[in-house]
Amino acid sequence: MSGPVIEAKGLGLTFQTGDGPVHALKDVNLTVEKGDFVSFIGPSGCGKTTFLRAIAALEHPTEGTLTVNGMSSDAARQARAYGYVFQAAGLYPWRTIAGNIRLPLEIMGFSRAEQVARVEKVLALVDLEGFGKKFPWQLSGGMQQRASIARALAFDADILLMDEPFGALDEIVRDKLNEEVLKLWARTEKTIGFVTHSIPEAVYLSTKIVVMSPRPGRITDVIESPLPKERPLDIRDSKEFIEIAHRVREGLRAGHGDEV
Asked: How far apart, in whole angstroms, are the C-alpha atoms of residue 103 and residue 108?
């Protein structure tokens, strides 16, 4: 497939409520290429999760156009173009870790042998070999979130959409999972859309950082990262990293200034 993986042109999304319309997104223009790691950052209410949900056809734009792999987001959903990782791991407590990962494969009608092979593969990808027979309550929060990522990877979609997957975790666990996500991205070469509130997380993970401002949600800056693809955690002390983080912070501050 040639052309952008995700493309938004003049995209707007307005929710109709009992208190009147809520303009969640306005005039969003963005191109995401194959293999990009794109982070969306901004304050609460800026529409970053709404935009991710629009890509996944969980919300539908009221203005402009949005294509995923050259087709509508609804068609991309039916073509199983993406996996989605939510803020909470969302694992069923009565199913084992392997059973949770297997669930979308069961729904999609994969053979039992194929299900087993895919579950083993993605458990290895997220460093959870040997934990397939455990139940969610037997795993730490970080391990549960890795299992959630494995479930989203199980049917091998080209796009992985992640909505603040590490927001509830402590900083040490978060750092570890950031490292693991980068390794996973390098191994799978997937296109990743990642929502975060954390400036260091956005800068550390991304090839492209999309800074958004609220009311209505719009893009105020798109920063192409000059950092190398392989990034040890201590790269966060480098001059380049600090300069990018400063630009993100300035973009967020400018976006807030537009509200006044």
From this structure: 9
